[in-house]
Amino acid sequence: MDQIIVTGNGPLKGEIPIAGAKNACLTLMPATLLTDQPLTLTNAPRLSDIRTMTALLGSLGAEVASLQEGQVLALSSHAMTSHRAEYDIVRKMRASILVLGPMLARDGVAEVSLPGGCAIGARPVDLHLRALEAMGATLDLCEGYVHAKAPSGGLKGAVFEFPVVSVGATENALMAATLARGTTVLKNAAREPEIVDLARCLRAMGAQIEGEGTGTIIIHGVQALHGATHPVVTDRIELGTYMLAPAMCGGEVELLGGRIELLAAFCEKLDEAGISVEETPRGLKVARKNGRVRAVNVRTEPFPGFPTDLQAQFMALMCTADGTSVLEETIFENRFMHAPELTRMGAQIEVHGGHATVTGVESLRGAPVMATDLRASVSLILAGMAAQGTTTVSRVYHLDRGYEHVVRKLRGVGAHIERVKEEAA
Ligand code: EPZ
């Protein structure tokens, strides 16, 4: 397994291009199953999760051609050979569950392995299933698989209120509703930019959707969808992650393609902490001119609140802030695994249930640390960039799921970072 070795150094300077959003692409790709016409996605990120989704769609008979070094994906599912998403692929990536709604809507049948939990929580899929049942689907759980069938006339429009906001369940229901007979109203729907991006793509494919980005989405079912070409929205989590690099190391970095509206709540917290964020014609310029950042409290919430996917990275910033900050994680039950690793670097963090209290120290010290999940891995790299001495991050395969060319991008603004093969134990 590879390791990343990073040495703390001074202020950063330069620019970082931000890629297309992993979490948008992972729901846009299964949308190809809604039509037998070709779907082309541009601005696609080059990530291992995208390759996993490609393999999953391939196992169903869909074709996914990766063009222009992976930045363009040409998808087509006119020749489906299977409606069964196997456990050995689904267990690698929970977003695999997003093939369920589209297959059910178009072909009336789907068998999808339950994804199982992951490091950050149990992550059930009950809301996905309940929304599809509301549209008339019959679902049986057997040997770890969901066996789904639509009524003989196809799914039917329904009014469904999500008891809790769920990004994935909203995406599955939204895709399924595009081909249902009649109108579907999704209440307490997720409002993330990735949902808005999916709705835009589905509309380009002929779907009739209104209200995306609000808590209520209305979908008028149509007979069939056609192909489209759609640009994947900018990755707001990659954006926020790299905005923290100058915030932690000092200096000034421009994030190309960044837009404040993608992460306004996050930018407000950066402002409170004393970091300047300025919109430019090419993106966002972030700078920490002088002095320590100020400690601020954070509570993760569904969009438009502070994103849970930036909680680990923001904790790294708070480790050397002036004062004490409390980070409350309300979305996932086990998303503080980066805290013990940051503590190895000298951070002072106390975790009690869903709260982490961080007492800022003058400086962190480099140490060997271990990545535990995708977002924790990058928070350790950010901490290593701001620490005194050298930090070795192991198990960086987590990183490859969600960050393309992370060494190249950070080197480009002056970070002392390299990726090496782990010495055999
Ligand atoms: C998506 O996961 C993202 N993944 C996650 O990003 C992100 O953290 C999460 O949304 C929240 O924003 C993708 O888009 C591929 P949820 P998802 O359904 O859809 C509970 C990353 O780092 N829940 O909004 O799985 C669930 O347990 C990843 O890129 C149910 O109880 O998240 C959680 O507590 C990590 N039943 C809460 O809802 C369900 O059926 C929110 O989960 C579904 C979810």
Characterization of this structure:
- The chain is an alpha/beta fold and 425 residues long.
- It has 2 domains: 205 residues, Enolpyruvate transferase domain (UDP-n-acetylglucosamine1-carboxyvinyl-transferase, Chain, Alpha-beta prism), CATH 3.65.10; 203 residues, UDP-n-acetylglucosamine1-carboxyvinyl-transferase, Chain (Alpha-beta prism), CATH 3.65.10.
- It contains 14 helices and 24 strands.
- The strands form 6 sheets. The chain has a 4-stranded mixed sheet. A 4-stranded mixed sheet has the order 2-15-17-16. Strands 4-5-3-14 form a 4-stranded mixed sheet.
- Helix 6 packs parallel to helix 7, helix 8 packs parallel to helix 10 and helix 10 packs parallel to helix 12.
- The relative contact order is 0.16.
- The model has no long low-confidence stretch (mean pLDDT 96).
- The protein binds ligand EPZ.
- Ligand EPZ binds next to helix 1, helix 5, helix 6 and helix 12.
- The site of ligand EPZ has 23 residues, from helix 1, helix 5, helix 6 and helix 12.
